[in-house]
Amino acid sequence: MFSKVKGTRDLNICETTFKDYNLNLIKDILNEYGFQRVETPIIEHSELFKRSVEGSDLVNKEMYDFIDKGNREITLRPEGTASFVRAYVENKWFANNMHQKFYYYGPMFRYEQPQKGRYRQFDQLGVEFVGDKNPYKDADVIALGNLILNEVELKNFRLEINSVGDEESRRKYQQALQEYFKDFYNELSETSKKRFDQGNCLRILDDKEDSQKPFMQNVPQLKDYLSEASRQYFNDLLAILDEKDIKYVVSNKLVRGLDYYDEIVFEFIAIDKNAGSQNAVIGGGRYSRLINQLGGPELSSVGFGLGIDRLLSILYDNNNSIQEQSKKASEDYFVYVAFSNNKLALRNFFIILDTLRQEFGWLRFYFEYDLVKSKKVLDRANKVNARFLITDNQEGLIYVKDLQNKNSNIHTEFIDPQTLEFEEDMLEHLSEIFEEEYQKLQGELE
Prior knowledge:
Layout: H1 13-32, E1 36-37, E2 43-45, H2 46-52, H3 57-62, E3 64-67, E4 73-76, H4 81-90, E5 100-109, E6 121-131, H5 135-151, E7 157-165, H6 167-182, H7 190-197, H8 228-243, E8 249-250, E9 262-270, E10 280-287, H9 290-293, E11 300-307, H10 308-317, H11 322-329, E12 334-337, H12 343-359, E13 364-367, H13 374-383, E14 388-392, E15 398-402, E16 410-415, H14 422-445
Parallel strand pairs: 1-5, 7-8, 12-13, 12-14
Antiparallel strand pairs: 2-4, 3-4, 5-6, 6-11, 7-9, 9-10, 10-11, 14-15, 15-16
Catalytic activity: tRNA(His) + L-histidine + ATP = L-histidyl-tRNA(His) + AMP + diphosphate + H(+)
GO molecular function: ATP binding; histidine-tRNA ligase activity
Subunit structure: Homodimer.
């Protein structure tokens, strides 16, 4: 027997149902905000990530890279932004001068130690808003993340935000950190020593080991080294968030794990006992140099990545069972079709099944291809969370049972599958039933 690769997962029907439900909800929100979907390959040239996120743990420790049969160094994409920017530049998507809002979704790969909420293959949804640097655009993207988490009903979360400054600010801060950590060099972890030697002291701040050591208590604060322009930009953004009534916490220690960010970085943190240490469900910020560094024009962009697996894991745990989550996510208008007494009923209904699917596109039909014992029909219908049951009685006549309305749950018109008018009668009867339900559905949506 084979087992799955460490750090990967298999999803059952309940889990994929709930995942699809939430993804569709999120995609609807993205469409409302004007974001349009693009795709990039799972594999990229390794140099793309080495150049865009050089010096990060992602490049040094976590990339899945290999030499292909053409002797090319290839990497399974570990994050989405570098791939997006490569596609944006290569395909000249910048030729359109309109505000450009993009989103993408798919699997990413990182060689990390697997734990709850962290996998070596994981699904991530990313958004990118390309254009001139503008705090209103940052606020728009942050508001989008805030809305998504509210709409998927993540009960408790907080927004943490910080300014990492412009290039001038970061250069001054790196110098201050270099001077400060010099006195504690022997106490640094081996990883941090390498970062110190490379002049990348900013990464020491989020080192899992060193961040807990006493000398970190008095480390210089980035806010003290911001240029006047960066300070004003950050204050402008916070004022906009206040006006939009989006709650946030300014976190001076938040720097994010990728070096291409400037000005604004942010994270949405799940405040939940089930989240464990992997509690950041959305992380992002602004980047103003990456597009130009990868051969494109001098354009800035702001975006975020949403960890789908991590988010859904928390949502699952906050309910009694995944089955209940799946039931909630399933469409209410599920029609279970099973016959117990009449093979002709099964045959004739199967003949019109495609017509029914086309006629009632908002319904899902679950059809049993063999006769089912009458005692098991209702139980099976409930297991698939059906709204309606179409079955036959002991005389072999077909009828419809409404499984939600217990006060009047049998539509008493019985249809004989042996008549020449069967298809016409069945369609007419179902139209009467489902049209009424469709009108109710439209009323609920309005």
